[in-house]
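> call design_seq(struct)
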């Protein structure tokens, strides 16, 4: 790297760190070393030519000034840098418009800093920009004409103070778009409804689809459904000038609403009184009415079940699967956490809905007596003979693996089927991958660790249960839960009907397998694991993508076009994960999702391929490799 470039980089860093007034834990960034030879912190260089490819200095508590002129006015840097990442510091901006000279820039990330004022118009001259992240700052004023950047894929600008209207982006080209929590006003431009309301929420004067508040007319700004009519802020003259017809109309609505509320309250009171009466007559009714009282804590089961249980109250504790009659009893399997658990306690415990899946709902239930928190799954539409169910539970109860979440108790009657698990406090892999706040990273080695752990656990289960024909049947990232040590655990093994992603007809009864279906179940698990690997690699959700394809089909089509690197999660690219090993894992995933079940590898082959990649990753001291291959 030439001397001019080194001097400029040093002054760039001086500015960032407030002229070295802070001590920042970085190596290099001095006049005496070469950024590419001495591996300056946050610098990635090209392989062939010793020039700077990316500068990433995030979360270093830098509280000086980001002055792009120091680097973008130096030709050798301006024509080589593609990534600038400075997120999560305390930086202000200076000479920001010089950023336009860094013409090769594809990624600019300055999320979570202290930038204020207008975004410079020159930003829209960055023709190569693909991802612009400026969220959580204090930018004000109109957005520059960013739609001029034809290749922009991600625009992340939430939590600022931008105002004016949203420019007409080419929304079809955007993958991520977020302008929530700003002061934008007016109609959301055409095509903006490709994104969900969360991309726009928190802009009270914004209107139109996908937001619930409709625009009044062509040029009108927002009319939020519950907008306070007494707003007297400047610019609200239209609202203050509400016509008498409108006042009459709103009063009419209010009167009708009031009448409805009175009728409902009257009915509720009447019902409450009737209940009160029966309370005195019947113990079970007493229990029910208490539960229905508005002040009672919500629980998770129906009142019919409660009465049935309260009247029968059979509870079997310990390893009682063999001996217990199945109907109307909670069968507590071997788990020290829930020993002594009584069904009544479970039923009465406060419950909170965690989510509804295809096969039922899951509740978080706090059992104070046991000092434990459980997750109870209520299964819907499960017409399985109780004895088959009991047999399967018995078999599954004998196969234990540290990364497999066991059922700790279950209940099975004609009315209800419940599965009880220990509550896992750290959510699911799905949430970790797709529900994390922007910028929070799930790094490559952790992803590889998760992949290998799941594959190992699945291999163990397949080995143990192959002869019984019990595959997982519903493997997906929302069924991979993270325990208190953040280790992945497979949940719901062998309990559900299969997710029929292979479009092969299946029986409804998971206990009546023939040989082909047996094999099919295991092969379906391999495909499901392949999809999880693809989620880990791409960071994308498994469902249908914007282009109408599911994740596996999309990845395979991109790879066929030889655009392999395009599929990887940008967070991994930014982090500098080894492209070679990502490609290796991608190859494993593609084998797993092969359309033909017979062409898919066995779980032992998959586990061993992933382990090899992981071991290679651990061995490598990959400090000089170029992780970036961003196509221009
Ligand atoms: N033991 C548990 N601890 C913590 N959260 C759990 C537990 N079991 C399930 N959950 C969470 O509860 C939510 C609903 O789970 P559920 O299994 O019903 O959904 P799903 O996996 O999307 O669908 P399904 O399994 O029915 O096809 C999910 O977010 C899941 O991660």
């Amino acid at each position: 790297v030439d001397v001019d470039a080194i001097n400029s980089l040093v002054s760039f860093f001086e500015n960032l760190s407030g002229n070295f007034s802070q001590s920042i834990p970085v190596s290099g960034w001095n006049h005496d070393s070469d950024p590419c030879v001495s591996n300056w912190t946050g610098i990635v260089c090209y392989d062939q030519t010793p020039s700077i490819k990316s500068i990433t200095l995030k979360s270093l508590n830098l509280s000086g000034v980001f002055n792009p002129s120091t680097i973008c006015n130096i030709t050798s840097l301006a024509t080589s840098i593609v990534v600038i990442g400075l997120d999560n510091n305390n930086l202000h901006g200076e000479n920001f418009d010089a950023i336009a000279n860094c013409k090769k820039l594809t990624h600019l990330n300055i999320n979570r800093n202290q930038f204020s004022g207008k975004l410079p118009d020159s930003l829209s001259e960055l023709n190569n920009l693909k991802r612009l992240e400026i969220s959580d700052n204090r930018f004000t004023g109109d957005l520059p004409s960013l739609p001029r950047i034809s290749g922009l894929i991600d625009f992340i600008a939430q939590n600022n103070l931008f105002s004016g209207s949203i420019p007409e982006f080419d929304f079809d080209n955007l993958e991520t778009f977020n302008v929530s929590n700003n002061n934008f006003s007016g109609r959301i431009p055409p095509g903006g409804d490709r994104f969900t309301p969360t991309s726009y929420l928190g802009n009270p004067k914004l209107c139109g689809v996908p937001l619930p508040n409709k625009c009044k007319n062509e040029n009108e700004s927002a009319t939020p459904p519950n907008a306070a009519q007494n707003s007297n802020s400047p610019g609200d003259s239209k609202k203050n000038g509400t016509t008498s017809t409108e006042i009459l109309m709103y009063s009419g609505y209010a009167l009708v609403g009031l009448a409805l509320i009175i009728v409902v309250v009257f009915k509720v009171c009447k019902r409450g009184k009737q209940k009160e009466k029966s309370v005195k007559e019947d113990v079970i009714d007493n229990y029910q009415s208490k539960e229905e009282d508005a002040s009672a804590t919500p629980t998770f089961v129906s009142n019919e079940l409660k009465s049935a249980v309260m009247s029968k109250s059979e509870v079997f504790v310990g390893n009682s699967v063999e001996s217990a009659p199945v109907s109307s009893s909670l069968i507590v399997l071997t788990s020290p956490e829930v020993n002594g658990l009584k069904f009544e306690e479970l039923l009465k415990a406060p419950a909170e809905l965690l989510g509804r899946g295809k096969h039922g709902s899951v509740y978080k239930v706090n059992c104070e007596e046991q000092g434990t928190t459980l997750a109870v799954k209520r299964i819907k539409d499960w017409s399985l003979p109780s004895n088959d169910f009991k047999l399967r539970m018995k078999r599954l109860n004998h196969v234990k693996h540290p990364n497999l979440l066991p059922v700790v108790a279950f209940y099975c009657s004609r009315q209800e089927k419940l599965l009880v698990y220990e509550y896992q406090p750290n959510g699911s892999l799905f949430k970790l991958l797709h529900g994390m706040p922007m910028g929070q990273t799930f790094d490559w080695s952790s992803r590889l660790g998760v992949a290998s752990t799941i594959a190992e656990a699945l291999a163990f289960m397949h080995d143990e249960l192959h002869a019984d024909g019990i595959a997982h049947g519903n493997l997906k990232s929302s069924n991979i839960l993270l325990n208190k040590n953040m280790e992945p655990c497979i949940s719901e093994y062998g309990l559900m009907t299969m997710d029929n992603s292979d479009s092969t007809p299946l029986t409804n009864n998971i206990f009546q397998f023939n040989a082909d279906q047996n094999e099919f179940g295991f092969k379906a698990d391999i495909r499901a694991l392949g999809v999880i690997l693809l989620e880990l690699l791409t960071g994308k959700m498994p469902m249908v993508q914007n282009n109408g394809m599911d994740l596996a089909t999309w990845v395979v089509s991109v790879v066929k076009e030889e655009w392999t690197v395009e599929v990887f999660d940008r967070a991994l690219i930014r982090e500098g994960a080894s492209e070679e090993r990502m490609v290796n894992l991608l190859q494993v995933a593609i084998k797993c999702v092969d359309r033909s079940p017979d062409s898919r590898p066995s779980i032992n082959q998959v586990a061993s391929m992933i382990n090899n990649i992981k071991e290679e990753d651990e061995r490598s001291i990959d400090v000089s490799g170029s992780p970036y291959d961003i196509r221009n």
